[in-house]
Known about the structure:
The structure holds two protein chains of two kinds.
Chain A: H1 3-15, E1 22-23, E2 38-43, H2 53-71, E3 78-81, E4 95-100, H3 109-112, E5 123-130, E6 141-149, E7 153-156, E8 173-176, H4 177-188, E9 191-192, H5 223-230, E10 237-238, H6 250-259, H7 291-309
Parallel strand pairs in A: 2-3, 2-4, 4-6, 7-8
Antiparallel strand pairs in A: 1-9, 5-6
Chain B: H1 4-16, E1 21-22, H2 31-37, E2 40-53, E3 60-73, E4 81-87, E5 89-91, E6 94-98, E7 109-117, E8 120-123, E9 130-136, E10 139-142, H3 157-160, H4 168-182
Antiparallel strand pairs in B: 2-3, 2-7, 3-4, 5-6, 7-8, 7-9, 9-10
Amino acid sequence: MRPSLGLALAVLLAALPANAYVRSRTPHGTATSWRSSCAIVQPDSGGTPDLGNDVTFATIHSSMQAWRDAVQGCAYLTLTYVDPAPLEAHYDGLNVIKFRTDKWCHPDDSQSSDVCYSTVAAAITTVFYVDSPGSSNDGTLLDTDVELNDINFTFQVVDPAAPLSMTPRSGTSIADLENTLVHELGHLQGLDHTCKDSATPSWEVDDSGNPPPACSAVGTLPAAELDRIVNATMYNSATPGETKKRTPETDDVAGICAAYPLARAPSSCKAANISGYGKGCSYSDRGELPRSLAVLLVALAIVALRRRNA
Amino acid sequence: MTRTIPVLATLLMLGLTSGGAHATTMVPLDLKGLTDRAEAVVSGHVTATKSSWSAGHDAIYTDATLHVERVITGAITVGQDVIVRREGGSVDGVGMMVFGAPELVPGEEVVVFLEHRGAARYVVGMAQGKIDVATIDGKKQIRRNLSSVHFTRTPTVEEQALSHIDTVDQLAVAVRRFAQQSK
Lengths: 310, 183
């Protein structure tokens, strides 16, 4: 490369804003992602007593729409909303959004109460993926669930003009449902937080290939970098009554578009197949399915499960 | 003052005035909040981890063995191996990740704030209750800048002093002071 061209490129690259997004990875460094053109997401029909079902499910829908609107034109992954049904949030190949209203625990806990979550967590996103180094499927997302803590938090649609004006249920904190969900849906698509805390796996890197900056030290970063990190929807903390995470920011969009570039779009939408990955059951064909058929199969599986459990 | 009042005060302070988020989506805890919620605060080395499926085979948990070398507060003894559980892990070619659950890696030295949830011990406030330790010039230094901890109200003069904590010794003094206040 001629020195003048190299210099020009270096100047150009230096002038371009670096992104801060962090993709979640397997312990061996493979970035996790969906291998379908869609991720089908379905709310549990139980909803939350904090909001009527109409508002609750419309908010879930609009949270998914916020991602669709933000990444259209550069990413192929589509978050596909399926109407609510009675669902559990656990490893079954279904991507479920569920409010925990009686106990802030994983369902296995119903007998032994040994797997409850931290009461200071408003929401927990759990992600299952293929962890098979060397395999072409390594890093494939299999199942994701978002659980919302409706015991220690009151979920509301906060007025951005008066974020602290709402009164939560006694002993709980207010959380804006859409602000919470858009962040969690970023995890569901394979994004991690934009800075590193004690929960960040040691193998995580940002888009530049470097470990993310420590959350405790972001205040020392240059203003532009600080702005990108703390204003991203995938930043790891929020202020009381915050609503700014309702819409993905440029950095979040860059992360999704890097993970799901249009040029590599799969031909169709299919539900994840967890058969052989810790579960013997399967509800979809291994082949490509039209999106509508995949959704129909999921719905049929739910009906079958409900009948079996009745 | 009974124990109930400061705990309630902390809950009210953290809950009603904050509603903030951290890690997954979480209320930020300052050192007093962490201490109030902890049944024990200890330091030591992680010696092993083991991941396994839950009884229903629909979640994965990892139990880390922590060899306790120092007890700051709580009914745990030096030399004891305690099991600290976290959500997530990898088994049979399947990985499970819960954003916000603290990673405990064999070989690392940590201070952890521990609470019982059901039958197992977990780190308080998920990642917030784990502090990395490094020995520098013979001193156990903590690798977390407490000055950046998000306080949910104007810190008292005493709490502001915590921003200068950089060793395990200093941390132990502050934790014991908060624990004493809560009794």
